[in-house]
Amino acid sequence: MSFRPILLVIPLLAILLATGNYVTGAEVDRRPNFILMMADDLGIGDVGCYGNDTIRTPNIDRLASEGVKLSQHITAAPLCTPSRAAFMTGRYALRSGLGSTGRVQVLLFLGGSGGLPLSETTFAMRLQQQGYITGLVGKWHLGLNCEHRGDHCHHPNQHGFSYYYGLPFTLFSDCVPGNESVVLADLQHMLQSLSLWLGLGLVTLVFVRLCGLFKVSFFFIAAVACVSILLVAVWIVPFQLLPTWNCIIMRNQEVIEQPMTLETLPQRILGEAQNFIKRNADRPFLLFLSLAHVHTPLFTTPAFAGKSRHGSYGDNIEEMDWIIGQVTETVDSLGLANNTLMYFTSDHGGHIEDADAQGQKGGWNGIYKGGKAMGGWEGGIRVPGIFRWPGRLPAGREVDEPTSLMDLYPTLKHLAQDTEPDRPLDGHNLMPLLEGKAERSEHEFLFHYCGIYLNAVRWHPPGSNSIFKVHFFTPNFSPPGAGGCYETKICLCHGDHVTHHNPPIVYDLLLDPSESRPLTHETERRFAEILEQTAKAMEKHRSTLTNLQLSDGTHTNSDAHVHTIPNQMSWEKILWKPWLQPCCGTFPFCGCKENTTHS
Fold first, then answer.
1. Is the same domain home to 366 and 251?
2. DSSP summary character for residue 249
3. Residues 323, 197 within the same domain
4. pLDDT digits (tens, 9 = 90+) for 416-429
5. Residue 256 in domain
6. How does pLDDT run across 335-347, given as a tens digit for each residue?
7. Active-site residue identified among 73, 141, 155, 295
8. Please, where are the H alpha helices in 373-477?
9. What CATH number is associated with residue 259?
10. Are residues 157 and 210 in the same domain?
């Protein structure tokens, strides 16, 4: 018997086995892709699968029908900057120094020095360390420069995103010529009035001197002229140039459009997102698609203008839904669906005060009370939460347990097989809930902040379906009896703008999700226990808030041996500084348009 055939077959079998082992190993080791999609100022009641029957959102609804819908998905803050900081880091924004003590609760100028500190860690940084390609397309609003133009200390590239395209700031009304400015509008009006009166006074003084009616010192006239010029300069720069200073587009660390053209922005953001997915289809990637919709000013894209039943706001939601559908189609057409976790949410609730006479600008928060900037009221913090991952997550599942946007950080970390040590987190891995392996949330308590102030506490008692919420203060609506702060356009968290409650106001969200029937000792047998347990939880939570520098110069639980986190929302950090202003061209003569042929 000849052994030659057998000897020839053995190497061939070895090659086949090795190849087979390699393919199997690659399939097993391939970590999932992540596409996180976040709307801006979207109300939970604006989406079909959350109860809206007048605005068409078939693509978002499809994600929910093919995946898992969270019905108690909660933001860590009711405003953009602190909410996004908590989302990125898995920790309350106060830990990053992004809690406000006064009227300004978000970053107002791209030329300010506040932002997400380099000492913080984002989920993008963790995934980047695990070999992921990471990209952010769209809104950032977490700062840019620290000490000089171009240091980019707060830039997305410094926080784990290897690719960035979009708005380093946000959409403000100032970004559309002719719109009334909303940035410190009262201060602008005051400066404008002072400039006018000083100008008239200067003309009068010159006239009096020339006519010889009174003796007026030349130096006094010069001093008044200098003050007038200074006030005019402060009023015009930066306020009258806000569209140039704040409304820009960057690709990585280069300003490519200043000021930006809104008409084509939705298509460009979509194209960038699709191209990022296509470029990285053969390796693990994270894409954070941070949409400019539906923050005002609203887009007027011809294909969607006038097509909805809810005016321009509804048109924008339907365009946003179409964008999400296009991204989903890109994922599916590339055969990535079964290995891609897709997620959709909003940074906080709808801005109900931002509405015209037809109610066509602001969002709808469904049955929930309040909205954007209203502390712990449900309307400002309960948002859509949808996860889709075919083959891994059950289709059509709904989870009615408290979850948080801060949960994304530990969830992504877990799925990326990141087991390295990390800082203490306020979020929890969501996969057991999403997969149906756990029935209860790990969040027994959630803390609701308004600026740096602890506004309310949510308690989900073990062994109970009830979810109690304790409000320590509530914003004063204006005019009294209204559902929001219409006179100031946005609610504030301090001083005379709030009413403190002793005892606190308590609701059972299981029975009263609209927070319309406060509990009392007579109506709730556990009333005293609710106050006792939340007080203990608050004390424990506060003990973890170490080395935070407040805007008044004091510190929380300061330890001299631990690095202090500077407050990023102080006036010194927020106000515009010309040496920090990003610019294409020679400052202050900034201006450029994006080359749309860029691939």
1. yes
2. E
3. no
4. 999 999 999 999 99
5. yes
6. 999 999 999 999 9
7. 141
8. 378-381, 408-415, 431-435
9. 3.40.720.10
10. no
Question: Maximum CA pair distance of the chain?
Answer: 132
For residue 570, tell me if it sits in a domain.
Answer: no
Query: Is residue 141 among the annotated active site residues?
Result: yes
Cis upstream peptide for 588 (omega within 30°): yes
The two structure tokens encoding residue 391: 């083959």
Do 381 and 467 fall into the same domain?
Answer: yes
* Torsion, Cα of 11, 12, 18, 24 (10° steps): -160
CA dist 435 and 546 (Å) reads 35
CA–CA separation, 444 vs 435, rounded Å? 20
The domain boundary, picked from 239, 258, 279, lies at 239
Catalytic residue among 80, 485, 491, 583: 80
Residue with token string 């790990």: 442
pTM of the predicted model, to two decimals?
0.88
Residue 479 DSSP symbol: S
Mapped onto helix, strand or coil, the DSSP state of residue 8 is helix
Considering the domain architecture, whether residues 154 and 207 belong to the same structural domain is answered as no
Specify which residues 69 forms β-bridges with: 386, 398
Question: In terms of residue numbers, what domain contains 229?
Answer: 185-239
- Structural domains in the chain (count): 2
Tell me, yes or no, if 211 is annotated catalytic.
no
Tokens 């003309």 belong to which residue? Answer: 203
Q: Say whether both 413 and 265 belong to one domain.
A: yes
Q: Could you give the CA distance from residue 236 to residue 175 in angstroms, rounded to a whole number?
A: 16
Q: Which of 219, 239, 259 is the last residue of a domain?
A: 239
Residue type, 268: R
φ/ψ bin of 336: left (φ > 0), alpha (ψ from -120 to 50), beta (otherwise)? alpha
Instruction: Mark whether 468 and 341 lie in a shared domain.
Output: yes
Amino acid at 21: N
Q: Is the dihedral of CA 40, 45, 48, 50 positive or negative?
A: positive
pLDDT in tens, 168-225: 999 988 888 777 666 666 666 666 666 666 667 767 767 766 776 666 676 776 776 7
* H or E, element range at 9: helix 4-29
Q: Is 232 helix (H, G, I), strand (E, B) or coil?
A: helix
Asked whether residue 410 is assigned to any structural domain, the reply reads yes
Distance in angstroms between the alpha carbons of the first and the last residue of the chain: 65
- 138 and 190 assigned to the same domain: no
Q: Is residue 99 part of a domain?
A: yes
Alpha-carbon span 169 to 181, nearest angstrom:
16
